[in-house]
Amino acid sequence: MTVSRGSAARTGPEHHTDGTAPASAGSPVDTLAALGSSWTWILASALATLIPGVIVLVWPDESLHVLAVIIGLYLLVAGGFRFVDAFSREGHGERLARLLVAVLFVLAGVLCLRHPMQTIAALSLIVGAVWLLSGMLTAYTALAAEDIAHRGFALGMAALAVVAGIVVLALPTQSAVVLTRLLGLWLVLLGVVELGVAFAWRSALRRARAAQMSGPTSTV
């Protein structure tokens, strides 16, 4: 769950009106920060969540092995997006929380891919724990950051992740089909919410860009 930080008119690397960041000649951290602040990066993160959800919903009769591989790949890719997103956070506590989420996703993804023949209960435990903990950390970030943009979206995503984690952990799954539909549904919901964040962030960037362009003219 990638959450844009700061107001659209914050200081730092300037963004183009399409939401992409220009090439930076600074350190790798600056490059990662510019990339993570791009609305297209948030959009790609949303699609990385939405597409696996659609896949597991369209083919719910696939084996547990296939499900574990899809979920493992989703967790790895999502962890990569969250790692880059962490560097767009200026606050130390906020960045640390994001890095912890990224590490959690990557470790869970490796575990799913390393042991794809694990039981349904084990797979549910892994995914449910990841969603629950990441939702709690996202809520902490949204509440702790003073200048976070679209705080309501961030808290909504956090609440959705926490509920998803609790549901997956609490409800017994009797078959791979039940688990597939449950996980697929939550992935689609999380992906749709993150799409909303991406387009809201694009609008904020465009408004900030328009304000910067009209500023000098209004002072003449």
TrEMBL record:
Keywords: Membrane, Transmembrane, Transmembrane helix
Pfam families: DUF308 (PF03729)
Transmembrane feature ranges: 39-59, 65-84, 96-116, 122-145, 152-171, 183-201
Keyword ATP-binding part of the UniProt annotation: no
Highest taxon listed in the record's lineage: Bacteria
Keyword Zinc in record: no
Assigned GO CC terms: plasma membrane
Region (Disordered) residue spans: 1-25
InterPro entries reported for this sequence: Acid_resist_chaperone_HdeD, DUF308_memb
PANTHER family: PROTEIN HDED (PTHR34989)
Protein's recorded name: Membrane protein
Native source species: Streptomyces naganishii JCM 4654
Record lineage: Bacteria, Bacillati, Actinomycetota, Actinomycetes, Kitasatosporales
